[in-house]
Amino acid sequence: MGAVERVVAPASAVMHAARRPGTYTGHLRELTATMITVGMWPLGFGYRGRADFPDPADPAPVPTPVLLVHGFGANKSNWLFVSRYLEQAGFSRLHAINYNPLTADIPRLAELCAERAEDLRSHFGTDRIHIIGHSLGGVVARYAIQVLGLRAVGVCVTIASPHGGVRLARYGSPLSRLSPLAAGLQLRPDSSVMRELRSTVRSLPTRFVAYYSNLDLVVPARRAMILEPELKATNILVKDHGHLSIMLSRRLSASVVDQLGAEEGLAGYGSPVRALGTAKGAGLAVSTTRASMPAG
User: Fold this and answer.
1) Are strands 66-69 and 129-134 parallel, antiparallel or unpaired?
2) Measured between alpha carbons, how far is 118 from 124 in angstroms, rounded to an integer?
């Protein structure tokens, strides 16, 4: 793509989006979600690590535990809405971790994620676990599985996670530069972490599901998809949501429950949505399944 096309293409996309009423509603939704997220943030303090694990003696309709990994600058309060849907569906063995991306890089955060996943699985005596990550948390979870070899993960769900990196990270931020181990700069498309994710991709037993949005200004739609054919990921569009409002979407939460419910074989959830295979005679391998849902 030439220099002129690189300038014209984004402007054309913006002009096209501006003709849709849903664009304005979506950005208003994101502004509202930002205020809600800031208001909920203090509720995420008081993290006690393993002491926060649910009691294994409590009845659980679904035995498989679910680990929740928040994004950059957030905390476990980000999961209050999603976790409510999960609990209503029987996924009561939930644990949301807190971490500081200013004091550890992505590989170290992935180590912490893997350790907590193994601890949680051992705590409940189950043979597998599911992981859900938002934004940076999705990259951390993927790194733990793909690079560090975290096993026994049934489904890894990522929400608005920069699998293709984000150009905004090239410039870092005043906060990320306070620590030489800060994870923010490692989200650059050409960073060592992004290159490692691309070079170590291979077929894995874990099923990957990546949610993305057309109005995410932080992680543009294509960069939030998992496009490597080896992972056979399912990419799902949550239409007209921003980077934070997607976490408050009822349709997102319901879809996440559907994905996990289908994987667990729960009644009424059908079969898991999986990637399309290679069409015979077509000469084209379709490496991802793309689905979409309206805002809500």
Assistant:
1) parallel
2) 10
Domain regions of the chain by residue span: 43-266+284-293
Q: Does residue 296 sit in helix, strand or coil?
A: coil
Distance CA 129, CA 132 (A): 10
Q: How many CB atoms lie within 10 A of CB 219?
A: 26
How crowded is the C-beta side of 155, counted as CA atoms within 13 Å?
A: 24
- What gap in Å lies between CA 284 and CA 281, rounded to an integer? 8
pLDDT, mean of each 10-residue run, the chain (296 residues): 47 52 73 76 74 91 97 90 96 94 90 97 97 97 98 97 81 48 80 95 97 94 96 96 94 96 89 47 36 64
How far is it, in rounded angstroms, from Cα 210 to Cα 198? 16
pLDDT value at residue 19: 56
> Tokens for 150?
């975290």
Q: Residue 190 has what DSSP assignment?
A: T
pLDDT of residue 100: 87
- Return the SS3 of 228: coil
DSSP designation for 16: H
* pTM metric for this prediction: 0.82
Fold of the domain built from segment(s) 43-266+284-293: Rossmann fold (3.40.50)
H helices present in 189-287, as ranges: 192-199, 250-264
In DSSP terms, 208 is beta-bridged to 156
- CB–CB of 79/51 below 8 Å? no
Tokens coding 220: 């543009």
Helices (H), 99-149: 106-124, 136-146
If we measure between CA atoms, which residue out of 209, 256, 201 comes closest to residue 230? 201
Q: Tell me, what's the pLDDT at 168?
A: 64
